[in-house]
Amino acid sequence: MIPWFALLSLTAPAVDVAPDPRIEWVELQRQERYAEAQSSIAGFLASEPDSAKINANYLNGLLLAKLERPTSAAEALAAAVEAEPEIAGWARFRLAELEIGRGRPEIAAGLLATALGNRPPERLAEAAARLLTRALEASGDCRVLAEADDWPLAKSERRALALARAGCLRATDPAAADVELRALLAADSSDAVAYDAATRHAGSDGPPDLETALAMAEAFFGQRSFELALDHFALALASIPADEQPDFDLLYSIARSHFWLGDYERAAERFGELAAITDDPEKQADAFYQQARSLELGGRSAAAEAALEAVRRVDPTDHWAASALVSGLRLAWIDDRETEALALYDALSSRRRWRGPRARAALFLAASDLSLGRADRASAWLEAVEATPGTHMPELRYWQGRRAELEDRATGAVRAYLAALGEDPYDPWSLGARLRLATGPLRAEAQRLAGTLPAGGRISDLRQAWLLARPGAAREEALAALKQQLEGDSKAREFMALTPVSTAAWPLWTVPLSAPIDRLLAVGDWRFGRDAAVKHFPSSSDRLTLTRVQLLSEAGLQRSALLSAELLIRRAAGEVPQPLWPDALRQALFPLAFGDRLVVETTDRGIDPRLLAGLIREESRFDAGAVSRAAARGLTQFVLPTARRIGRDLGLAPIEAGDLFDPALAIRLGAAYLDELGRRFGPRPHQILAAYNAGEAQSELWRGYCVSDDPEEFLTKIGFRETRGYVRKVLRSYAVYRELFPVLPTTFSGIEPST
Description:
Layout: H1 21-30, H2 34-47, H3 56-66, H4 70-83, H5 88-101, H6 105-117, H7 122-139, H8 155-172, H9 174-187, H10 192-201, H11 210-222, H12 226-239, H13 248-260, H14 264-277, H15 281-297, H16 301-314, H17 319-334, H18 338-348, H19 355-371, H20 378-386, H21 393-406, H22 410-423, H23 428-437, H24 442-452, H25 459-468, H26 473-486, H27 490-496, H28 516-522, H29 526-529, H30 533-536, H31 542-554, H32 558-572, H33 583-589, H34 595-603, H35 609-620, H36 640-649, H37 663-681, H38 685-694, H39 696-704, H40 711-716, H41 721-740
Helix pairs in contact: 1-2, 2-3, 3-4, 3-5, 4-5, 5-6, 5-7, 6-7, 7-8, 8-9, 9-10, 10-11, 11-12, 12-13, 13-14, 14-15, 15-16, 15-17, 16-17, 17-18, 17-19, 19-20, 19-21, 20-21, 21-22, 21-23, 22-23, 24-25, 25-26, 31-32, 34-35, 34-37, 35-41, 37-38, 38-39, 38-41
């Protein structure tokens, strides 16, 4: 099938020599006409057996593999190893991938060890080490690691191979395997390798020593396997002499484990004990604050307020005190103790560095009053928010519009909502503003203003008219008028007309390609050639930058494509609204990668696949190998315990950490979890997404702060800045996906993101 991008010309630049055959080969790959490309290469090799300069054997192997002809592909790649020595390392890697697919991991291991022994570039070394780890796990033969200490590996790859070596030793020398596992844990207990080492060492005979028990507990804790963490923290505590006080950080991790397991009563007890054993004001305040969180989530609001008062007593000037004031204000307000709540708000005004927490408290108060239909007190609170640096303006403008509505100031309300839309028409508060402009008494005023704005012909007025126009013909006409006016600005006109450079016109064909990665790029291998992309498609040219964006996207390198696209927008978009951006740019910014899988996993569950696409875009940028600081993995960023629980519900085999990098599994788990959350929270994407990010109990708690069912009130009352930003970004992406794909394609490009 032909992909979504326009087919480009195969016309080569006017030169006196025959056109480079790679131009045709690359273009045919871009059109997914792989059989034609392979046939052309085969003809070339028959007539020009010396392929070293243009790496025809290498590309022939890649195409034959794509055409599911593994034996022929292996022969072609083996020929590349011999005939194209400058890229022999990459050819060996690709051949190793084939051998693993053919069930011959021991052959793959030998190929990869040879590639690594030749000290390859960093990207190839990283990929080869990861693949070698898989090969060794499958074959159990670690003899190829004899020279591994001399390989140019980063810490993460070196640790992964050491773990594989321990696995090999387990069958023949269990004691040596345990020594290797303990060494890995002692060196670093924070990464996924440490988790795997701890899991394997847990099956050893006899209890671990104190140091190893602590390292294992920290490894389980860091990967969010809190039940296992608690088991090993208990082993560590049992090893501490009775006359010694356990380390504060150890006890803190135990309390946090109970918290994340939802045992809020036990967590509150533990945090209270922590506060009693330290004289450090910072640690005491932290412990009391976490105790308050645990008590509130456990339904004990009065006890939570007492803990928050303790935070303020410990260090009344610290940031913990500001957080305690905001939390106490919320609890007093929802308990109808307004005088106490307002006194806490006044206390937040006592220190300049508390302006941020004070603004959040002011928005909480204003949103509460306005959602109840009361406007008389909101002005002062909203003015305090407006005076705070870093305020999210669509949120503020939305609530200013709600205030104006209650004060029967229709024009003021329309202007406020229009200001929200002007900041970002896809922001969830702006979408709420658009809904209010389309219904009730504001509708007529909004349309009146939309009709008067274009008269002056100014771009700013035409943009506002477009934002106010009703969906359908009126909005299309307003956008056309805005586009016509933008055409008068040369920069805007050039950006709107921006198109990628045709394959035949790439500067790549006009310069010597001396470096191996340049040659890989020239045969369409963007996975390993991408590091040369900026050199040959530089950011100094908008057209070449857009070409780079498109090529990265086509190659499945979505994270890199998104980064390049965002840089181009910041530099070149100016006042041009998103619907007028080049199609290639918009679709690279909001890809429907893995589209078939998204549709399959969501349709029967009644989930909009565009919501899951928006979630993946913000969770992982469509990078199947993504790993977060919180040990979340893969496209949908699951931590292992949650993935295992959902996997059991789906009847899947036990899930291991590495399985989460499988795109099909990640999407299936993500869809199943959204379905589960939807059954609990109903058709409320804002609350579902908050639960996905911060936990179900926390999302329920924030819902309890609300006096209405308006999404905008819930968004404002999300207590964690990170979660509020996350939900806003996913809902924003969801809105763009709905605009870009009002009807989902029936088929999707065969090119999927690289893993």
